[in-house]
Write a structure and sequence with these properties.
This protein is of the alpha+beta class. The chain is about 20% helix and about 25% strand. It starts with 5 loop residues before the first strand and ends with a helix.
Length: about 160
């Protein structure tokens, strides 16, 4: 799988009281296809529109990496039954943690300890100074994408 569109990361939080978000396929819109709606707060419209079709997003929660998803289209949807997290994008899981007791840490995936904001906004890795300082001295964004693909065994 070509991960050249992997340049985003986003913190997620389950709103139903469960520990992990997007773990249970009953939350998925099309479970057999691993497709679900990745949610943003109602006031994060501009941020939710940033990733483009076929971009990849690393999902983080509880200082762990739990998913890599591919954005399926450029549409922004509204969940009329939700209140705070009413905006969503359609995404497809391309990798999900197989050990929910010990998903990969930030350090394993990003190559260093990074303190990400937990506001639920998508972050472009290319715009993060700490990411650039670390990966530009190695092999840049392309090297990071290859590192993620090998580490998570995404084929």
């Amino acid at each position: 799988m070509n991960l050249t569109g992997l340049k985003w990361t986003k913190n997620v939080k389950n709103q139903d009281g469960r520990y992990w978000a997007y773990k249970d396929k009953t939350e998925y819109i099309e479970p057999a296809e691993n497709i679900f709606g990745l949610h943003w707060k109602f006031n994060q419209y501009e941020n939710a529109c940033k990733p483009q079709k076929d971009d990849f997003i690393i999902l983080r929660q509880h200082a762990r990496v739990t998913h890599v998803v591919r954005v399926l289209d450029n549409e922004l949807y509204k969940d009329l039954t939700a209140t705070e997290f009413s905006l969503y994008r359609m995404v497809k899981t391309v990798w999900i943690a197989n050990d929910w007791h010990n998903p990969p840490t930030y350090e394993q995936v990003f190559g260093q300890k990074i303190f990400f904001p937990r506001d639920g906004k998508v972050i472009n890795l290319e715009n993060m100074n700490v990411f650039q300082e670390s990966w530009n001295s190695k092999t840049g964004l392309l090297g990071f994408q290859k590192h993620v693909q090998q580490l998570l065994q995404i084929s």
